[in-house]
Amino acid sequence: MSLNSLEEIAQFIVAEGKGILAADESNPTCGKRFDSIGVESTEENRRDYREMLFRSLGMKNNIGGVILFDETIRQRAKDGTPLIELINNQGALPGIKVDKGLEPLQESPEESLTQGLEGLDERCREYEKIGARFAKWRAVIRIGESIPSQSCIDKNMQALADYAKIVQKNKMVPIVEPEVLMDGDHSIERCFEVSRSTLSSLFNCLDKNSINIKGTLLKPSMVTSGSKAGIKADIDEVAELTLKCLKENVPNNLPGITFLSGGQSDVEATAHLDAMNKIGGFEWKLSFSYGRALQQPALKAWLGKEENIKDAQRALSHRALMNRKAAQGLWDLSLESN
Ligand code: 13P
């Protein structure tokens, strides 16, 4: 694909309702997912699972980018084809998770700071040579009684801006992912406040670091009630408050916002995205970069068995199509049973 600039790469990934398949689970996280279906997390099983996903028919037209883990970007399919070639053949771009996970903050151990800036320039140079066109870094903000602290937010957002600078220098599009965790019993209003402080700090840091916003994608969490909240906000409330938060803090020239699913069910994540696109009134593309919400039904159908591959691929294809429709505001619950 001849995409020559960061702007072109970013626009391509979210063109015409397309979104991102997040398949960048680290080996321990992949282990947890495989535990849930009783499959051992070996290098070969991880390869087989991801090869199955990337060969799904529904990748085409619905998925514009796939985020990979270091192991996967170097792997080959059973027949020897590099996995990134399978992705390219589906009309999607390969990307790479470059952060190295979380470390507790010394002054506030309940909170964390994402690691991975050391040696990042060199790693990016290699990933770009292998074929990655974009990168991802996840910052995590936890809500609790007296957290998050402003200092935790600012440190994490500065790290995202420092990462973005290095990634753009290496000709890849940075996905900046500030995840406000759903864990907890907080209200949707509290999630709104924390999301607002986080996004405001993020765009401040990106601006100070002179990041090319047109060559950047934002991967935020939606504004929702905590997963253990007594009263759960409904779809319309989630859509309205998420959009309000984004409209107040995200510049219009950002090409795309691709949400994470963060523990929402697959249909819930689709319904929220669709509701926001039906409301409209923004210039960015509003799309998806789901991990669990795209993969869960496929994982459950697969169970590590070759005879289940077709069913698992159908499950992924269906979710990919449903989410593309949602990214265009064209989804409806009745489509789920077709
Ligand atoms: P979920 O959609 O499962 O939250 O995963 C997206 C992701 O890439 C988290 O970093």
Describe this protein's structure.
This protein is α/β, with parallel strands linked by helices and 338 residues long. The chain has one domain: Aldolase class I (TIM Barrel). 45% of the residues lie in helices and 16% in strands. The strands form 2 sheets. The protein has an 8-stranded parallel β-barrel, surrounded by 8 helices. Helix 7 (150-169) links the parallel strand 6 and strand 7 (173-180). Helix 8 runs parallel beside helix 9, helix 10 (266-279) packs antiparallel against helix 11 (292-302) and helix 10 packs parallel to helix 12 (309-327). The longest helix has 21 residues, at 188-208. It is globular. It starts with 5 loop residues before the first helix and ends in an 11-residue tail after the last helix. 48% of the residues are buried. The structure holds 1,3-dihydroxyacetonephosphate. 1,3-dihydroxyacetonephosphate (13P) is lined by residues 22, 24, 138, 177, 260-262, 290-293.
